[in-house]
Description:
Blueprint: H1 3-11, H2 18-25, H3 29-43, H4 48-57
Helix pairs in contact: 1-3, 2-3, 3-4
Amino acid sequence: MTNRERSVLQLLPTMMSNSEIAGELYLSVNTVKVHLKSLYRKLGVGTRRQAVLRAGELGLLGGSSPGPTITRRG
């Protein structure tokens, strides 16, 4: 999993839209969609909810993630 995919994954539980995630990470919406598609494939899931659940099972969310911690602006 790439660092950018990990950054997108960390924002999925916030229920931000693809557009909001793009703004938060300074990416285009299409780039976010590409990262999500790749994440779903790598996690073996088909939906955002399934991705969050699977990532949680694998310890990829929150403090246990080896990637950077992302907090929501606002």
